[in-house]
Amino acid sequence: MSSPKINLLGLPREQMEELFARWGEKPFRARQVMKWIYARGTSDFEQMTDLGKTLRARLAEEAEVRPPEIVSRHDSTDGTIKWALRAGSEQAIETVFIPEESRGTLCISSQVGCALDCSFCSTGAQGFNRNLDSAEIVGQVWLARRELGAGPSTTDRVISNVVLMGMGEPLANYRAVVPAIKVMLDDYGFELSRRRVTLSTSGLVPQINKLAVECNVALAVSLHAANDTLRDELVPINRRHPIAELLDACWAYAKLYANRHITFEYTMLEGVNDTVEHARQLARLLKNKPAKVNLIPFNPFPGTRYKRSPQATIDRFRQVLLDSGIITVTRRTRGDDIDAACGQLAGKVNDRTRVRLGSKMISVAVQNL
Ligand code: SAH
Ligand code: SF4
């Protein structure tokens, strides 16, 4: 049953201030409450001791700080942690923490399932179920911070970066994702810099253009192919927004983003998109542009027809790009033992809406602009 209380989690600062104004409170009260929620991780209004008794009582009556419920937690031997969070009675989404030497990255989900049906993605294979709301998106960061804080407090347990690379297409859920990002960036929220929040998209061009102006965070684009024939097959949204249109939007985005690099993700699929000729095509598209490339070794999942390219093939592909002066890194696979890698965030979606490929599918995906 849904609660009648207002969930404060995920409300951007202006909306918090509006709420408090409606209650006849000063705007700084809203900011005080945000500090308690985000900087101190408090969900109990009684602990917010710098607020008056009357306000605390009103908050307890009319509002709440309600993150999604944790269903399970898996710790990998390499330090990666994966949480499954409840997103409905039969559904789960996944959040992954990846500690590295110089940073701690939290990979969060934006939808339950995904309608875009990329042929090599297990989230896509589930079909679309529903959009997460801002509280569920911000709640993933809030919960992970709380869980990490509960252990030994070392720097490798700090979330320094957030990537929207978990389940779902974040730009197909623009209305909830952008307010959630605003909370992540806010000085009274998680105080992350816009360079440390990365949104990954398969290429919804109108939403990329909108994001450029409204919430210019780091952008990663799932390219995976350097010609339209192949990309149409791997990333079907390409039929609506082909590569040339997508790249134009990327360069315009980079311009508004102080000409910082856009990351292009390229999943290496054996015998499909991994030849030297493919690398040359990609180099031609990205040469002398504000672009860097992230090569992702394909992560197989049950039922897939694809295979991961051998390391030597990935290295050869990378060398072609490096020779063209394009910064290229190969992403290390993390959390293999707990199925926490890219494209394996399958969750449990029992009530599947298998939305078939075609124009109808795409309208489902973009309805939330
Ligand atoms: N929907 C967004 C973000 C989530 S997917 C997007 O597509 O960008 C995050 C990244 O993982 C994308 O680059 C996606 O193409 C890649 N990916 C999906 N399935 C994968 C798999 N099985 N192996 C490796 N990478 C995969
Ligand atoms: Fe959706 Fe991204 Fe998977 Fe494509 S790769 S199906 S856009 S989650």
Features of this protein?
369 residues; alpha/beta; DNA polymerase, domain 1; TIM Barrel; 2 domains; 10-stranded mixed sheet; two-stranded parallel ribbon; disordered C terminus; binds S-adenosyl-L-homocysteine; binds iron/sulfur cluster
Topology:
Layout (H helix, E strand, L loop, with lengths): L5 E2 L5 H10 L4 H13 L13 H10 E2 L5 E6 L5 E6 L5 E8 L4 E4 L3 E3 L8 H5 L1 E4 L2 H16 L11 E4 L9 H12 L11 E5 L3 H10 L3 E5 L5 H7 L8 H14 L5 E7 L7 H11 L4 E7 L13 H13 L3 E4 L28 H8 L3
Parallel strand pairs: 1-2, 6-9, 9-10, 10-11, 11-12, 12-13, 13-14
Antiparallel strand pairs: 3-4, 4-5, 5-6, 7-8
Helix pairs in contact: 1-2, 5-6, 7-9, 10-11
Quick recap:
The protein is an alpha/beta fold and 369 residues long. Helices cover 35% and strands 18% of the residues.
Strand order of the largest sheet: 3-4-5-6-9-10-11-12-13-14
Number of strands: 14
Order of helices and strands: EHHHEEEEEEHEHEHEHEHHEHEHEH
Q: Please identify the top-level CATH class of the largest domain.
A: Alpha Beta
The span between the termini is 27 Å
Average pLDDT figure = 89
CATH superfamily of the largest domain: Aldolase class I
Uncertain runs with pLDDT below 50, 5 residues or more?
347-369
What class would the helix/strand composition place it in? alpha/beta
